[in-house]
Fold these 4 entries.
Entry 1:
Amino acid sequence: MSQPEVQNLNGYRFIAKDAFLQGGGIIDGDVLRPDEIGKLTPKEVQELLIRQGRERLPLKELFEIEELDSKGVLEIPGSPRFKTLGMKMEAGQLVVHGHGGGFLGQEMKGGEILVQGDAGSHVGASMISGSIRIEGSVGDRAGAPSGSNKYGQNGGKIIIEGDAGDETGFNMRRGLLAVKGECGKVPGYGLLAGTIYIGKGRPTLPGLGMVRGTILIGDKDAQADPEADWPGAHTNDGGLFTANFLRLLYRMLDQEGCLEEKPEVIAGQAHRFYSGDHLPKKPGQPMGRGEIIVRVK
Amino acid sequence: MQVHSTPIDDDFAEAFGMRYVRLIITAANPNWATIAAREATGFASSIIACDVEAGIESTLTEDQTPDGRPGISILLFGFTKDSLEGSILKRIGQCVLTCATTAVFDGGSSMEISKSEHDPEPDPQEVSLGEKLRFFGDGYQKSKAFEEQRIWRIPVMEGEFVIQDKTHARRGIAGGNFLIQSKCPQAGLLAAERAVEAISNLPGVITPFPGGIARSGSKVGSKYEGLKASTYDAFCPSLKSRVETKCDPETQCVYEIIINGVNYEAVRNASRVGIHAACEGEGSENILRISAGNYGGNLGKFHFKLHEVLS
């Protein structure tokens, strides 16, 4: 959907009613797409059905609906009960005031999602394009495959300003997944391609089973002891590393607000390079095409 | 018409439509960026015998380049997208890939100046850049996508050579020109140098000849079979008595400034700025007249009438 087409979309703000605040069960968020809701009149929006628990309710029972001047924008209250908010959305902006729920932006194809709070697991699962920004932390498997999909994040950007859970970027294939805080275990598990940035901490077994792609670890203390068995036996130490491409990468991260220092300064500092995964897989399969780049003191 | 008391001929420069590519070369410092840019734009004065016409467009500061390093913007002109692609592959491969600390990016269509109704449609066509050069990496090359842009990281002995996957060939104009006729060679050279210096600060244009100045303008064809071009006898002072000359009776030296640009307005503006610079300064009293080179108006699509350029 082109920008002029987005300008034709209506903007709405949903305000939580008691039935939403006090209700129970999962809420299927896949109908809450700014590019679909924006095509509807206020009356049509009110009558649109959404599943909460076992019930299918018109939106007007859960939310008060206000029209916005901003075109293509959908503002909604958050809840951890949401599932698949913004699923397959192609354009517009979805703003979640609160928790974004699980499988947020699954298979998303365009537009933006902004979550002013935390989100559950599988954020951006199998997303194709667009951008997701989480101002809080997220659960496990951000950018991982959704359902029966083979690939995880396949393009676009996921920016997490807090921490992320285990197996972040599992089977990710393309795009940028940036975590400003720490990641749980095995980030980049089975990474096929794309870039994962981890701003803080020293995650366990990063890039285990990775095929290609880049994991950039920005914490200067992550590599406090170069002799330690870290990142793990699946990697080979390539020694200190300087490369112009780090400037591009850090500049992009800076534009996304992921850095606390100037990108040129960080890019010019020492980094250590590890190739991986080097553990035997299928016979004849090339190994070590992935990279883990660690900022060092 | 006169500019600072120098007469301006009522004539026109005849220019041609060509495709151009803009590349940004960055390096660890301005010196290496300049070295790479000069190498990449060498042997590229005229399409008569060179594969491209090329030159340095502008010097870029750290905040104007994709990787935040000092850079140089170069323009390369060729007749077709395919011819440009082949030339760029060789030039970047041999002159920039090999040059210390450099990286290469698509210069895009930024830095364009205002357009006019004479402009050709830019009609951008994709041109391979790193897409083909990556094979130098022998399988160890890596690609990385930044937003919509893909770059290649080619391992080299120094570290890595970064080059953007693709660039674009757009329609531009080549062969805008004016000629400086002077009473003495020294004054003519000074005037030509002033013109080139003034044009070098302008966006969207290059002066592809050595030092920006052509001392041997050419006409189409020759008495010798197979020669595409030969000396522009009408502007050769030593032939004044033998041919139908366009030289002033007192002319001893003629220098030509040839301008290629990204659009009509860029070439027009550069011509105007260059002529003014040539006619004002040390020795300008020896500049006899400003002329223009053309082929009768039948070959080139773009005509820059000197009086209109300066009006």
Entry 2:
Amino acid sequence: MDATAPISSPRPEPHLVIEASHGWQLINWRELLHYRDLFYFLVWRDIKVRYSQSVLGIGWAVIQPLFSMLVFTIVFGRLAKVSSDGAPYALFSFAAMVPWSYFANALGDSSGSLASGQSMLSKVYFPRLILPMVGVVSKLVDFVIALGVLALLMAWYRTLPTVNVVFLPLLVVIMTGTATGAGMWLSALSVQFRDIRYGMGFGLQLLMYAAPVVYPASMIPAEWQLAYALNPMVGVIEGFRSALLDTNPMPWAWIGVGALSAAALLLSGCLYFRKMERTFADVA
Amino acid sequence: MSDIAISVQNLSKRYRIGLKEQAPDTLVGAMTSWLKSPLANYRQLHKLSDFRDDPLDKQGHELGATPDDVLYALRDVSFDIKKGEVVGIIGRNGAGKSTLLKILSRITEPTSGRVEVHGRVASLLEVGTGFHPELTGRENIYLNGTILGMRKAEIDRKFDEIVAFSEIEKFLDTPVKRYSSGMSVRLAFAVAAHLEPEILIVDEVLAVGDAEFQKKCLGKMEQVSRGEGRTILFVSHQMGVVTALCQTSILLERGAVAHRGKVADVVPAYLKSGIQETGELFWPATAAPGNERVRLRAVRVLCGGQPAADVPLSAMVRLELDFENHRPGLHLNASFHLLDKLGNCILATGNLPSASLTPDQWGGHPHPPGHYRVACELPAHFLNEENYAISAFVVSNVNCIEAQAPQCLAFRAHDDGAMRHEYTGGWCGMIRPRLPWFSERLA
């Protein structure tokens, strides 16, 4: 039973040098590729464990944006009479809640990933970059479910998406890129500064008002709109509304600015993470 | 292709340990320092990750970077390990073993120096890393396997073998949280035992699990090393295991290589190192273990009133320590550990009121500043013919160690025949107490 076959290694013998690293470095793609199975299993664990032993299970992925939407519709739509660019307010806010709640959950997960994976960090080597990326990918499941609910809601209101719906994947890429970039920054910072962990939930709540979730971006004064769109989620959310609800023409200027700042966030986050990762095991 | 598997050259690792905080002594002082604390906290937290090449030169003294807060876990360590060599790394706590393994398994980076590794490495510093209690045994095998660096295809191939090794076939689809602790350890081990790297780095993980399963794992490791010619680095405190498993050994002392050679030469050096066999140990005031509150000044093993390194089994042995208290009113007590020659704790005792047989005037009570002497007695006919070591501690508030001298004195107990009037053969056991016995005829 124990007679294991000797390993045949036709590959050249790996040669590894360990020494103190200096300066900035980007992603080691080959290594990430080697660890793709680990990435896959961590994502899968995240999804499987997230709603285990809960009655509603995956229903929680829907409840959060749905109830926020109900509250917003009553408070901002009915009571405060905030403009919704001509769409029914419920649809208007839900179309924003779908990407926003993805972003908030992914970022929350991602920024806490190193802290919660600390026992792994100090016991075994793997590309650390995997950890913040796991949450970003696994929350896409919730996102897709919420998107399904949005489709049902649109059917209920008899709203048809525009042809611009083909650009949704692009918006999703910007959205996940933003969450990844911010997640790298915050997770690396939170290893050293616990404040990030404590401030996260509250910060995300405040941030929601910096994105056009409960109000349309058209309410922002025109001269400030491009600066406002530096928040990549502005372009994403307004893009979702334009593509699905036909509120406005596709806001390409905002999407463009947002894509640039998302790219900057991703690149800088990656660099910072890679610079800090060598001390994770010592500081965590 | 050379025959060197791991080559370590001038490896050093420096840590920053926590800086001493200045305690304010007035209310105003306390309030201002509380207000300033975010800034101070930021500096301190930031410094934890600041491992610049020479903190003294670059940062100067204004941030308080004195050598006190820099600790060399490893200093200028060099050695080579040949392919197929099974090496035991031994040393006391704090000698740098774990740091060395962490660097070799790339968990942390060295401060300076270089390691070259030829071959695929897997390291096992803990069993069951990444195990998730909500997942089933089957799922955890895959998760843990990939965490340890296996590919999914590799796990698929070995899956049945892993399950058979773990002996948990029936519970494969039960969440691990419903496993007994023994079962999850077995499962974790089964995964680890089936890693097939060319170089395996193992920390003291064999200490868990029941004895029979440990044996099985040792067997598997032996088979792997002997049968398949794999290089293994193995850290353990159990000299028996090291001797059985390894051909060569590295003894680390205070972050440096103290001995490197055949197991048979290095292990005795380890067992002798650092332990005094004089029956008595003094420290000058400047070098005494402890802190500004309490300092340990002397530890003694006494027999018949004299310091002794060799005591007869029929005699009472007195363990004694002297300490100084500098803070009025500290609730202090003393504690001794009696250890076997491999460093396993045989017993721990302290002079707390409910833990001592005789009422001790001071044990656990407030101590005015001064010199104190505390002693405890091991009864006659209690030890076995063995080598023992003791660790001494002074503790405040029952569980805060103020001063300690781990494994500071060694002594030997020799059989003087007092219990040998009838039986003269080998007598097993770490201790050999003379106990009350009762027999009666029932029919």
Entry 3:
Amino acid sequence: MVWDGIVAIDLFLAGMGAWTFIFAAFACGRDDAARKAKLAAVAVAVVAVGLGALILAVDARGGMMHPLRFVHLIGNLGSVMAWGVIFISLFLVGAIVCAGMMLAKKQPPRALEIVTAVLGLGVSLYTGVLLGTAPAFPLWSLTALPIAFLVSAAYTGYAAWGLATRVAGGGSAAPSWVSRAALVLPVAEAAALILLLAVVSGTSGSGAAAAAASVANLVSGSQAVVFWGGVVAVGLVAPLALAVLRQRQGDKAPAWYGLAEWVCILVGGFAFRYAVVMAAVPIFL
Amino acid sequence: MSEKRLGMLIDLGVCIGCNACTVACKQENEPPLTKFNTWVESWDAETEDGRVTRANLPKLCNHCENPACVSVCPTGASYQAEDGTVQIDQDKCIGCKYCMAACPYGVRYMVEESGDVSKCTFCHHRTTEGLLPACVSTCVTTSRMFGDLNDPDSDISKKLAEAGDKAKGLMEDLGMEPRVYYIGLDETLAAKPVSAVHKGGNVIAPYEGRQ
């Protein structure tokens, strides 16, 4: 095992935090009534992405034992990890400035929100591409995993945004596309999961045996409970059902439907990354 | 393009799996306990005529021409030296393990005491002084050959030219262009395993299959 659950936490927090900001920027109103809820969501984004980066740094033992080595962190711009560091750093700067302005009871400039959201998109893409550029693990397919992680990050961002704004008191009503996202994202993630399993199962050549063993680990082996229970049942089926119920019942829907939906999405999002990291079998013995 | 391109050729038909290379490397480079810069994977194999023989496959860093470990390293700690070998600048290594996840040969390891990643250097400290890598100089059957692949007059280049298509690198389909070549690799990998795969006396792949 090269990477383990620690990296799964980092990947989850980075993707979730980045998309929490994106939802805050585009789903929260820009009026004063929405500021508190929006600030709560942006704060969640900052803490999640910052904590993820901190965990990544702590896991890099050489750097922790010799901190000056971190000055080389973007020494190779051909490395996806170097680009991840750049995206995360700039995203955090943008998000913190936005949060600071809202704390000062000002609306952040729209351009800053958009630029920070684009950086957030880069952060969430980076998490999948990071694994996808490690050819020793065929499960981490560069073709399919970044898409799956991107969609999952968007779904967990939607959930964290929903929870944060609910806890902060709600604010103005969410736009209609948010309701559609609650239905589209789990379906898209399921499709991305199927694509991932199909692409990896079709691996040929030197990676074929490790690819087959990894897929077996996911669907019927060591990570099957996490995959079917955590990712599929808790992370996709349950929140989709709750979203359908919530939208059908409208104002009559109990408040806990939304809370349960969001918590399930977050559990499923972490389970997805954990299962993908832990089920991966290397090509080498 | 570097003028020198160091590489290794291992004749599997001659390797007897004695692990003298493993021990010599341990003494020369002192990798941590349970870690190896080179090792021999051994298993019992059934040949086409029904006999059971011993298959031995020495492994080490392949010092690839197109190394994934170098391209993913964020700090530039992993780099290609002028002689074409893949080296690690320990003063830049943050121990993120990205290179370990990228290397399909599993030749890199974490040094717990320092937090750095390490691996075979082709005995860089010896070869720069005109010596052979420890594993090559100690090989009792001269299974291992080392030299400049860009020098047509070097022993290794002559042997590779003589071997032709019979000399192959591990997992060449991955595109890393390994610079450790094997003679007899196809025959060794094609022989049906009838035992677990061992590395230094320990099972690294059970006969029942991997999990």
Entry 4:
Amino acid sequence: MDMNEKPKVEEKVQEVPEVEAPKLPDTKEEKLVAEILKKAPYAEGSVRRERRVEFKVPADRIKEFLELASEKFEMLIQISVVDWLKEGEFELVYQLWSVSESVHAFVKTRIPRENAKMPTVMDIWPVAETYEREAHEFFGIVFEGNPRLGPFILEPREYEKHPLRKDFNMIGYVKTIYGEDFDRYDESKTNYVI
Amino acid sequence: MANLEVPRELREEAKAHDMYLHPIDKDTYELFFGPQHMATENFSIILKMDGNRVEKAIVNPGFLHRGFEKLAEQRPYFTNIALLLRICVPESDVPENIYSMAVDEIVGWEVPERAIWIRNVVLEMARLSAWMFWIMGFGNEIGLYTAGQWAAAYRERFMRLFEELTGGRVYHIYTVPGGVRRDIPGDRWLRQLRDTVEYLKGKMRDFDDILFDNYIMFERTEGVGVMDKKFALKHAVTGPNLRAVGVPYDVRKDDPYYLYPELDFEVPVLKEGDSLARVLVRRYEMEQDLYILEQLLDMGPPSGPYMVKDPKLKNLPRFKVPAGDAYAHVESTKGDFGAYVVSDGTHKPYRVHIRGPSQSHGVTVLEELLKGARLADVPVILKTLDNCPPDIDR
């Protein structure tokens, strides 16, 4: 009887960690992601490396998610916009920093390029006003609820052109402003470069 | 005491000939502060004044916009170094380093130990020379010109060391993805750097006497431009400005890079949140930076290569970076300086986004702090926030 019982106990001990190990988060980053995803099941979250986590959120629930995340992440460091021309989408990356946990988070969301609109996050982080003004000026994204969208860094004549979009004709613009004679040819004297 | 009042007859005559700049019977007027004013450096603030008090301030940046982020998309990875470093004039090594760190992370390189040591020394030297630059500006704004002139002279020592190391005085184009561009000139350079650190250590007491422990400085900064902890966090204020409201956040401690985990230094924190606290935090940090440089010199440069060895680096203009994105940031004297680099697998970055600390404390925070300030305090608030307009414009 004793001989039969022993292997059974061993089997049980082996089985338990195999099932539970992936569920229990070890590092503080995994704990943080698990905690936020529990409250926001619509988002996808992953740990990139030490002190870097990433979330992918659908655009219509971004505000809800950021309000939730602002409990852990005190600072909105930046709103970066990437223009994916082939996909016809803007990718907005809200870069958050948690002072208490020392973790940087990328919150990524994608919106269509045509008539790009996003709700403002000024009421969560007032500093978003500046970032949104910049994103509006360079990419033409309208942040609904931000009262100060308009010419900010660029000159008024450049304001409607949204120069950081990938389809902005930079060489054409430089030629119209500075003229054809503006000496910006490479060594072969054939290619116009900027 | 001399009678300073203008005689009534003269005043009436001046009024009749419209000799005053603004009508004297009206108290509110609009004042364009900068970009000619020394304190604003390269941007302007439109002040709506009520007598001597600021009613409303509107920040008007854009004088330094050169489209670096767009230009960086048109250039190979290594060429961008010579472009992006122009974003931060007083410490141009910071944009070099954050961009290189982000590219290193995307490629997955392990930068050689020697290169990391050199990068760390360069960053600390840049911090010290930027502190000297800041003393120059701040001393001039509150009327203590001698401190500014001393600081300019001490900055020259660092510029000479930089010239010997990199070939450039202000813009160095030295840190590149994968390492640094050339090796340390020799032991003599290290000795000179140690001498400079020792020299500056002795001069800190002089700076205390003339600037940091000066009655005039206290009078001008105490209780001026106060912000609290919650306000600072919501506005993403970083660096010495955040540490002056009692938050001990320093990228070197909280998101450590290079050799900082091995170094022993303190993060000075004050709670008052006024201009005086911001000045004193900077004063303590200067001392810590000298201490860090001393430790690095005691450590000595590790032997080995100063650039990563990769066969792909033979053709630098066609060097391709795998698809991916990375964010890297360092602690500059102005705050948390970060770069977000996105690669699509070609030899040019798909997107480079630089996060300058002045983007957060130079626009909305400045506008809030200027409300109700005296006109004479405007330069003091600007300089104690350490606003750097090229960060905003890029």
